[in-house]
Specification:
The protein is built from five helices and eight strands. The protein has 196 residues and is an alpha/beta fold.
Length: 196
C-alpha cells in the first residue's frame, strides 16, 4: 500500500475496503465498483465538522444521459478510466477530515455513500419516496439503517489488514508512511448541448 517514493496510497486502500463491502453485503450486490471512480479531496481547514465524503452521480434521474432546464439541454461531462470506459459515479473522501473521525464513524460514512448508489446502478442516486429523496422521510431511520449495515460488515470478519489504516488518524498515517496521497477526480461539469 505504500508508494515507491514514500507515502500511503489512500484511494487504492479505500477501493479495497469498498470491494470487500460490496462483496459481503447483499444490499450492495448491484454495485460494479469498476464503474465507480474513487478519489480524495483536500479540505482547506483541518476542522472536524463539514463534509466527510460525497457520491456524485454521473447520470440524471432514472439514468437519463441528459436533462433539460429552462429550455437548455445538458449532459454531464464524461469521466473515464484508463481504458476509456465511462464511470457512472464518483466517490470522494475529504482529507484530512475523514481520517480524523472515529473508526466507527469512518465505516458508517463509507456505507452511507455506497448506499446512495441506485439499486438499478444506472448512474442515478437511490431515490426515496417524498420530498427528501436522498435520505427518506426519517433521517434518523436512515442513520440506523447505515449503522446496522456497518456493524453487519464488521461482524462478517473482513480481513483486518484491509481496513487497519482506518484505525489511524491522518497524522498517524502520514507519519507512519511518510505522507498520504491518492487519486484526485475533478468534479464534472454540466455541458449544454441544445438551446430551445
Amino acid at each position: 500500500m505504500s508508494h515507491t517514493s514514500g507515502g500511503f496510497d489512500f484511494t487504492t486502500a479505500m477501493r479495497r475496503v469498498c470491494v470487500d463491502m460490496v462483496g459481503r453485503l447483499p444490499e450492495f450486490a448491484h454495485i460494479e465498483l469498476d464503474r465507480v471512480a474513487i478519489g480524495l479531496c483536500q479540505t482547506r481547514k483541518r476542522v472536524a465538522h463539514g463534509r466527510q465524503a460525497s457520491l456524485t452521480p454521473l447520470r440524471f434521474e432514472a439514468g437519463a444521459k441528459s436533462v433539460t432546464r429552462d429550455g437548455t439541454t445538458y449532459v454531464c461531462q464524461s469521466v473515464v478510466d484508463a481504458m476509456g470506459r465511462e464511470y457512472l459515479y464518483i466517490l470522494n473522501f475529504y482529507l484530512p477530515r475523514f481520517l480524523d473521525h472515529a473508526f466507527a464513524a469512518k465505516i458508517a460514512t463509507i456505507v452511507h455513500e455506497l448506499w446512495h448508489i441506485s439499486p438499478q446502478f444506472d448512474g442515478d442516486l437511490r431515490r426515496h419516496a417524498g420530498r427528501c429523496y436522498a435520505h427518506g422521510a426519517s433521517h434518523r431511520k436512515y442513520e440506523i439503517t447505515i449503522e446496522e449495515m456497518a456493524q453487519e460488515w464488521l461482524s462478517l470478519e473482513p480481513p483486518h489488514p484491509i481496513y487497519a489504516f482506518l484505525e489511524k488518524n491522518f497524522h498517524e498515517l502520514a507519519e507512519e508512511y511518510g505522507g498520504v496521497y491518492g487519486t484526485h477526480v475533478p468534479a464534472p461539469k454540466l455541458l449544454p448541448i441544445h438551446a430551445a
